[in-house]
Structure formats: structure tokens, C-alpha cells
Amino acid sequence: MKPAPLYVVGLGPGDAACLTPQARGALARAQCIAGYHLYLELAPPELLHGKTIIATGMRHEKERCAAAVEASLAGQETALVCAGDPGVYALAGLTLELLESRGLLAVVPFSVVPGVPALCAAAALLGAPLTHDFACISLSDLLTPRNIIEKRLAAALEADFVCVLYNPRSKGRPHLLTGALEKARLFRRPECPVGLVRKAFRLGQNVCVQELSRFDATQADMLSLLIIGNNESRSLGRYMLTPRGYRIDT
Amino acid sequence: MKPAPLYVVGLGPGDAACLTPQARGALARAQCIAGYHLYLELAPPELLHGKTIIATGMRHEKERCAAAVEASLAGQETALVCAGDPGVYALAGLTLELLESRGLLAVVPFSVVPGVPALCAAAALLGAPLTHDFACISLSDLLTPRNIIEKRLAAALEADFVCVLYNPRSKGRPHLLTGALEKARLFRRPECPVGLVRKAFRLGQNVCVQELSRFDATQADMLSLLIIGNNESRSLGRYMLTPRGYRIDT
Questions:
Q1: pLDDT band at residue B172, thresholds of 50, 70 and 90?
Q2: Which residues of chain A neighbour B86 with C-beta distances below 8 Å?
Q3: Most B CBs within 10 Å, among A96, A142, A201, A230, to test the B interface
Q4: How far apart are CA B119 and CA B11, in angstroms?
Q5: Which GO terms describe its biological process (chains A, B) (predicted)?
Q6: Which chain A residues are closer than 8 Å to B79 by Cβ?
């Protein structure tokens, strides 16, 4: 049996209007579609109909990738779906690692189909928070030691990067975000805007910009993305803006 | 005259297969389309046909945004196009600033339509270089003082971020990239992979992964994006991988 193409596909934030034709095409061609069950719900239902579906739960990333590799080896064209972009805290990497460990890198036709990442979806809804240099940090300590997370966050704040925080707060880990905001207050003005976007471009979307000094960490959860401005960021009505250095003559 | 909607639209890397339906819809609805002339060439020609087109040259960003705002004020539904995502080193910010300076924030219906950013397009072609925390830095010193660029790069390298370099090298500024690579050699192993992607998903696309110790800076230009791995990144055949911390049992 000749292995069939294996695509790791970015669904973007979730609305079908944000799904690229390239991603839609990969889903349409695939005979097997694998993914975290909540992400499969973001895919257009008509593209799942009649296909082999491999739905797995949270923290079952290895099983999901392994099942997708097996399907490809069995000759089924396979799409492994990720929310946002497959390269940003998602499964492009783990799939490559699995292919390597099994000696399949040159055997399975592998490709990554990019998507609109959560950071760009959130930024679009906030206005323009990312217009200058930014750092992207996941606060999840499941796979990364806390001291590394804290070191990176401190370095990014000190060097005045806009800071994008993925996985900002989970029930089992409420304090990392509190600590991150305390750290931010050491390096940013009290009025520095913090943008919170929950369920960008999805039902129940919520967008808000608050001052760092007043930001309430308990609003954030694992469906949220947080953007802390740099020292020039400011709020503009309901928007958040990080200027890039243009001179605006009024 | 009632101002018409003004969209700042991300075209993604350039191939129509990477243009979201949301972005396509905004271009289709727009009566006026403004953009850097090379970016207008990335938009599907049938969506430009019969429209008012405002094409401006490099470094004319303010004129471009101002003309788009004028068109909106004149009642023309207007799309201001950007390559990649409009929030990443692009015109979402400048447009908001112009609206603010003219007191038009509550007058012009403004929105940002996200796109697949160059960093995700490049990452997809390289495999999985971004799977862990990363920092995004523009090496252009037109709008940012060199000492700030250098400080941010040093901080990001020291804290072991994957480093994404936009605008890595121009004819007038060939030495900033050379200096950046020298700095990287202080913080990374000689075999740390550096990915270079030129014209992602466009005619003339070029993708390569080289060891940091051997990386030739002269390959890079303003159409390239460079990704320097972290201390765990490695090359895997033609791919570049930054692992996230999963245990792979072979």
C-alpha cells in the first residue's frame, strides 16, 4: 500500500469565512479527518460527511497524530486539523517528530496547510495591538517548566515586546497569569492596555481592552488569548493600538 | 455623505488559495481598493476590475492610508490591502492612528480582516519551526532605532525564543542581519537551524534550512523571512523542527 498524503491543516479561528481555500481543499480531498473533538466542530460539517473521522480528547495529541499517520500509511488521504495555524502551539511539530521516530519522513507525503492564527484573529478584533515587535508565549506548564515560561515572559517584557499570551489561565493553573500580570506591572505603565479576546470569530465572541492596573485575571480561560501592549501601546476607544513610529501630522 | 465601511484586509502570502473568504468578500464588496502596487498584484485581478484603484509606491504608507480614509468619507466602501496579515508590521495601526488624529474613530466604520501572516506561511513550508514560544522582530531601522532592534534581538535570543526576522536585509542596510547572526552564534549551537523562506506560496518560492554556523546572510532580502531556531530546534531532512516537549517513544 502506498502511503497517501498527510496534511496538517489550520482551520483558522473557526468561522468558515476565515478558512482558506487551500485548507478547504485539503479537507475536501481527505478520506480521513483527525482532530481534537472540539476542533472538528469548527470544520465545515459538509466536508466531514462520509469520511473516516478520528476524534480524540484533550491531551491525546500523540494518539491523534499517530492515528493520522496510520491512516496515511493505510493509503487514506488524511487531514489532521488544528484550530488557528498548525505551526503555532499545534500539531505540525508533533507529527514531524512521530514521522522521524518511525523512520517515515521520506515515506509519508507530509505537508502543512497554514491558517489564520489565533494571535492575528485576536489582533484584528482589537484593532492593531501587534503592529510592532511581539513575543508569543504559552502559559501552559504541561509541557514547559514554569521557570522557563517565567524567564521568557520577563525577558519579553523588559525588552518592550508586545506580549501575546496563549493558554493564559486554566482551572488547575490560575496563578501563572496572576504572576504574569504582576510581572507586567513592573515593566509597563499602569494604563498600558491589555486586550482579551475569547472565541474570536465564533459564537459567543468577547473582546475587551482594559488598563493593566485594573485587569481582572479571572476573566481569562483556555479559550482566551491575551495581548499585553508595549510601552507605547494605548487604547483608542474600543481599540488597542501599538504605534510603529510613523509621524502623524494632524 | 455617510462614510462607507473601511476594511484593512490581509491578502495572506499571495496565492489565491491562501486568501480567506472573508477577505475575498471585503474585496468583492469594495468600490475602492488601495494598496502598495506590488501587493495589489497579489489580489485576484477579477476583484479589482472596474473599481477605483489607489496604488502607491514603497514608503508611501501614509498617503495610502489617507487616500483610503478619504474614499470611505466620500461614501465609497474601501479595502486597504496588505500582504500577509494587516496587523503584523502592516497598515492596521497606521490607519487607526490617522482616524484618531482626524477625530474620525467614531465616524468611519473601520474593521480589520485578518490574513495568514508571512510567519505562518514560512513556518508551514519549513515544517514546524515555531512550535514553541517565539519572538517576531523587524530588522528594518526606518521606523525603529537600531539600538532597540538590537536590544530586543539579544533579549529574545538569550531567553531562548525562536526568532522570526521580518525585513531581514535590504540593499541599504546589509549589515544589521550580519550582526544579528553574529549575536545568534553567541546564544545558539553552531548547528542550530536557520530557515529562510522567500516568496512563500508565490511564483519563485524558495525554501532552505541551513546551520547557523554556515548561514550565508547575502541570500536574504526584503522578500525573505528568516527563522532562527531555539536551543532545541533541529533540522529533519528538508524540514526544521522546534519540539514542544512531548515524549516520543519509538
A1: confident
A2: 124
A3: A96
A4: 14
A5: cobalamin biosynthetic process; methylation
A6: none
Under CATH, to which class is B119-241 assigned?
alpha beta
Identify the pLDDT of residue B151.
Answer: 97
Class of residue B147 by CB neighbours under 10 A (exposed 0-12, middle 13-18, buried 19+): exposed
Taking the domains of chain B in order of start, what are their residue ranges?
6-116, 119-241
Report the distance separating Cα B111 and Cα B226, nearest Å.
30
List the one residue out of B124, B43, B210, B91 whose CA is nearest residue A84. B124
Contact B22 A15 (CB under 8 A): yes
Place of cell 472596474: B50
Cross-chain Cβ contact B93/A241 below 8 Å: yes
- The CATH class for the domain spanning B6-116 reads alpha beta
Q: Reply yes or no on whether the pLDDT at B54 is more than 80.
A: yes
Q: How far is A174 from chain B (nearest CA, A)?
A: 20
> What does chain A come to in residues?
250
Report whether B1 contacts B8 (CB < 8 A). no
Residues A102-130 have a mean pLDDT of 97
CA distance A155 to chain B (A): 6
Q: What are phi and psi for residue A240, nearest 5 degrees?
A: -125, 130
Q: Do B114 and A137 touch (CB under 8 A)?
A: no
**Is residue A23's pLDDT more than 70?**
yes
Query: Greater confidence, A143 or A113?
Result: A113
Q: How far is A156 from chain B (nearest CA, A)?
A: 7
Chain A CA closest to residue B243: A93
The minimum CA-CA distance between B111 and chain A, rounded to whole Å, is: 7
Work out whether strand B110-113 and strand B78-82 pair parallel, antiparallel, or are unpaired: unpaired
